[in-house]
Structures are given as structure tokens and as C-alpha cells.
Design brief:
The longest helix is centred in the middle third of the chain and has 18 residues, at about 150-170. This protein has an 8-stranded parallel beta barrel, surrounded by 9 helices. A two-stranded antiparallel sheet has the order 1-2. The chain has 12 helices and 12 strands. The chain is of the alpha/beta class. Helices cover about 40% and strands about 15% of the residues. The chain folds into 2 domains: about 5-315, TIM Barrel; about 320-348, no CATH class. Helix 6 (about 185-195) packs across helix 7. Strand 6 (about 135-140), helix 5 and strand 7 form a beta-alpha-beta unit. It is globular, with a radius of gyration of 23 Å. It has helices spanning about 35-40, 55-70, 90-105, 120-130, 150-170, 185-195, 230-245, 260-265, 275-280, 285-300, 305-310, 330-335, and strands at about 10-15, 15-20, 20-25, 45-55, 110-115, 135-140, 175-180, 200, 210, 215-220, 250, 270-275.
């Protein structure tokens, strides 16, 4: 019988060789060098740094310009009292420096993340990120189309065009982090890969706004993921893995908290399991605990490596492939039991 210590956890993601399938995704712990080092020491296979947001950079640049020009139209002579600004460390500069420092501080692959709002912004900042020496890029396609004049096809074509432009502009592997709300996910995912993406990250969590009933203000706040949220990426990775083939990498994110969760995402065909919320709750050392759980499960079920497990329960290999599609809908509804263990009819 295989011992936990002899289980091979190595995996490949975006063409990068990782020592573990557990990846620390973008979050506060990967924001600074100390947090990144703690995660690397705990055993993560790779690090994804928080996104560089184009909107924040633009807002900063506009604010600086307005501040420097304030009053100049009325009191131009007053400008002589102020020294000339010869240098300014922008938010983008700070982010790029942070990437370089993190890359030097850890031995695991470092993945930069980018969230832009314009096609030109995506390409411009993707090139800047690539120049820092990071190992890969993650495009965070996070937007809520609200224009009633835009059709689903137009929205998808716009996203595909920017993905293709970014992939063509850099030599690094590019992963695209998608939302689950595209009208035909299987088709769109295959088109993203055809546009040049080396992998898909499933899925982006859309943070919904709340209301403060005293002030009637819209309130934005982060809710850490829960284990049940893993079901959505599980379903789609199981469906997409046989459709996309072994070429593009697949990463599961949202709801990965334990070693058992990592086993599940690997079984349906994911190359890595990304974690943030559990690490924020329990700290970087939780990685070691999750890895220990993963090793024990694999050894206890006679797997010698992650590679043996990967894809063993995808839609193509599952005994009941319909379990990932609509055919299992009624079965799921009837799985709810009352206190006396009788199915609840008509639950919907």
C-alpha cells in the first residue's frame, strides 16, 4: 500500500511545473512579500497576486492632474511657488515593484493578475506585467453588462477580442478567469482557448451589493466563500475537461477549503485547486494541513500521484455522465429529506 509520504503531488499548470496542486489565489495574503513567503514556505505550488485594476490607475492619474492644475487658470503666477514634480510613484509602479520583489523572494511560480476596462489598457498593462519576470498572467474578466442594446453575442465577441489581443502581445502563458454567466459556457470556453488562452480559471465570484437600511446607501463588502460554492466549478470542469482535451489547463476556484475539496476538483479534471478564503480564515499554515489530507486520501485509495487521479470522474469517464447535466435535476430535488426521512415532493 502506498504511504502518504511517497505520493507524488506534482502537477503542470500553464506549462509550469508545480510541486503541489494547491495554489494560493489572489487575496490579501499574496499582496505583500511576507505573506507570499509564508504561503510558499507552507507548501503552495504557485501564487497569484491580486489584480492590477485599470480603473484605479486612471482615477489616480486624473486626480493627480487635477491637483497639479488646480488654480492655474486664475493664478498662473502662483505656480512659481511650487517645485516642479520630476517623479511620481504611481499605483502601477508600486504594483510592478511588488511583483518583482515577490518573484525574488519565493521559489514557486508567481502569476500576475490583471483586470482592465479597455482593450488598450489590457494590452498595455499586460506587457508591463510580463516585463517584471513573472511566470504567467491571469486575466480577470470581471464585468456586468448592463447596456440593453448589447446582445450576448456582442459581449462575448468583445471579450474574445481582448483575450486574443492580450495573448498575442505577450510571450507568457495566459489564464483567463471567467464568470459562470455566459449564455453558452461550453462554447465560450472553447472559443477562449482558441483565442490563445493557455488555461481557464473557473469561476470568478461576483460580489453582490447590499443596502444599509439606515442610510439607504449601497454597501460593498467581501463575503468569504463557503464549501457549497465548489459545486459550480466542479460541474463545469467535469464537463469541459473531455471537451477541451488535455491541452489547456483548468483551475478550480471558489469553495476549496479542505484536502477533500482538492481531491474532488482533481478528480473531475482540474490541474490545480486555488484557495483564498480558507487561508484568510485559518492562516498560511492551513496549506500544510490541506496537503496532508490530500496525501492521506490518495495513499488510502491506492493512488501514487495526482496524475493518476486527475480526470477520473469527468463527464467522459463518470459511470453516470448525466449527473453533470439536466438529467439529474429531479434526482437532486428528491434528495432532500424531511425529519422523518421522507422525500419532499415538488421541491423547486
Amino acid at each position: 500500500m502506498t504511504g502518504p509520504g511517497s505520493v507524488d503531488l506534482r502537477t503542470t499548470y500553464l506549462g509550469l511545473q508545480l510541486s503541489s496542486p494547491i495554489v494560493a489565489s489572489a487575496g490579501p495574503l499574496t499582496r505583500d512579500v511576507d505573506g507570499a513567503k509564508a504561503l510558499a514556505d507552507a507548501g503552495v505550488g504557485a501564487l497569484v497576486l491580486p489584480s492590477l485594476f485599470e480603473e484605479e490607475i486612471v482615477a489616480e492619474e486624473v486626480g493627480l492632474s487635477l491637483a497639479l492644475e488646480a488654480g492655474s487658470q486664475h493664478f498662473a503666477e502662483a505656480l512659481d511657488y511650487f517645485p516642479t514634480v520630476t517623479s511620481f510613484t504611481s499605483m502601477a509602479d508600486q504594483y510592478l515593484e511588488q511583483l518583482e520583489q515577490t518573484k525574488k523572494a519565493v521559489e514557486v511560480p508567481v502569476i500576475a493578475s490583471l483586470n482592465a476596462s479597455s482593450t488598450g489598457g489590457w494590452v498595455r498593462y499586460a506587457k508591463l506585467l510580463a516585463e517584471t519576470g513573472v511566470d504567467a498572467l491571469e486575466l480577470n474578466v470581471y464585468r456586468v453588462p448592463t447596456d440593453p442594446q448589447l446582445t450576448a453575442a456582442q459581449v462575448e465577441d468583445t471579450d474574445l477580442a481582448l483575450i486574443a489581443n492580450v495573448c498575442a502581445s505577450v510571450s507568457l502563458p495566459v489564464a483567463v478567469k471567467l464568470s459562470p454567466y455566459y449564455s453558452s459556457m461550453a462554447s465560450f470556453a472553447s472559443r477562449v482557448v482558441a483565442s490563445g488562452a493557455s488555461g481557464l480559471v473557473l469561476f470568478n465570484r461576483f460580489y453582490q451589493p447590499d443596502l444599509d437600511l439606515e442610510t439607504m446607501d449601497v454597501v460593498s463588502k467581501v463575503e468569504l466563500s463557503r464549501a457549497w460554492e465548489l459545486r459550480l466549478p466542479l460541474r463545469w470542469i467535469a464537463i469541459l475537461r473531455p471537451q477541451l482535451g488535455p491541452g489547456p489547463s483548468l483551475a478550480a476556484t471558489s469553495g476549496v477549503h479542505t484536502g477533500s475539496d482538492v481531491v474532488k476538483v482533481l478528480a473531475v479534471g482540474s490541474d490545480v485547486a486555488m484557495m483564498t478564503s480558507a487561508l484568510l480564515r485559518l492562516g498560511p499554515t492551513h496549506v500544510s494541513f490541506v496537503e496532508s489530507e490530500l496525501r492521506s486520501w490518495l495513499a488510502g485509495h491506492d493512488y501514487t500521484s495526482v496524475a493518476e487521479l486527475r480526470g477520473s470522474v469527468s463527464q467522459a469517464t463518470s459511470i453516470d455522465a448525466s449527473a453533470f447535466e439536466r438529467a439529474n435535476y429531479l434526482k437532486t430535488l428528491h434528495s432532500w429529506m424531511t425529519v422523518d426521512q421522507h422525500p419532499v415532493p415538488g421541491l423547486d
